[in-house]
Design a protein that fits this description.
452 residues, alpha/beta, Urease, subunit C, domain 1, 2 domains, nine-stranded mixed beta sheet
Amino acid sequence: MYDLVITNATIVAADLQYKGSICIKDGKIAAIATDAPEAVDAAQTIDAQGLLAFPGLIDVHAHLGERGEGDTESVTCSSKAAAVGGITTCVDMPTNQPVIKNAEILREKIRYMKEECRVDHILYGALIRDNQADLKEMAALGATCFKAFLSYSGEEYTSPNMYEARKAMQEIAKFDGIASFHCEDFSITSGLDREMCEGKIDDRRAFLDTRPVSAEIIATQNIITLAEETGCRTHILHVSHPDVAELIRRAQERGVRVTGETCPHYLRFSEDDFLHVSSLYKCVPPLRSPQAREALWGYVEKGVLSCIGSDHSPGTREQRDDRLHPVYELGNGISGIQTMLQTMYDLVVNTKHASPTIITRRLAESPAKVWGVWGRKGAILPGFDADIVLLDPQRHWKITPESLYYKNNEVSCYIGLEGVGYPVLTVLRGNIIARDGKYIGENVHGEMITRL
């Protein structure tokens, strides 16, 4: 007898859709039945007639937050939000307090993530100026990848120069880890930031001008050059512009071990939203022109940008209030982990008129392969974890603060957005953890996932 069978589902694989019943036992997908559902014996059955079944999504770029104290986003809140949105695995960034820069700090994060995170998680370590000697030990603890900011990111999260990045990539290549980079040139962005702050220029267009595409292009090309030299597996984070994606495409053609991601906000919004609608669209790299947005989509379709991540970066009301701060002092980042699937489905199917299979490729299969967990995550196949999200393709939605599980649920540029196609059920390792916009998995905790 199976523990759970989801019958009559339209299963959305990476390259096709088909009708089937998903049979689950001991947290794993035991079988896919294409015969009559009444022939399947199960302790619990869910009829998914009219629903699409996707693999549980993998968010390759999330800042889940801190432990539960204070006004800042907490791991518990953001991971519940992820679950409601159909995300069953998060790749969590090392931008915590303190920064995850050595094994001792990573051990503590592993401990509290086990207690507080409600979805499975893959953990980053930080790559900073002076921690090359710490990388191997963090990898031994299970850190799969290491993130560097090439632009300024605070006094503790120091930005490596190219010499330091090269040394780190040589070290990471020895244990076949992944070096990931926020690619904006330090000297360009720091100089322009300084001019804006010293001049007290409170203007949204002026902020965009401090983060030119040239800064993203220069930093990306430098890192690709180092990736080609060192052989290090390299991942370019949150690509905002097609010219950057083109550099990645050319490198991939040469056999460089480089992958890239973009984010829903770079595919759905543009700089016009930041300029004319709300400062809540402020992020780095910034939103680009409508023309760049449309061209970027082509690199997602082709698989040059093989992953899509939310870059969920929640801020407090005070940090993001442009009535209290000039634009250059406002926090950066977009809260979007809960809404990623529904907004991407609406964009892909209802706006782009593309197949929903691209969602499986960019939000499940490719992330699992890049992060080395394919075989356990990323597909609805026998032997894989029973991570499944059911989506109603006819259900209309409108995003409201009340619908969001974020601690600061009023701080999201997605509020007010409407669309069609909504996740109605999330299953993590055979456990139902969310239903109809509500988190119901209080007895389920996420597991740390390491490379297979």
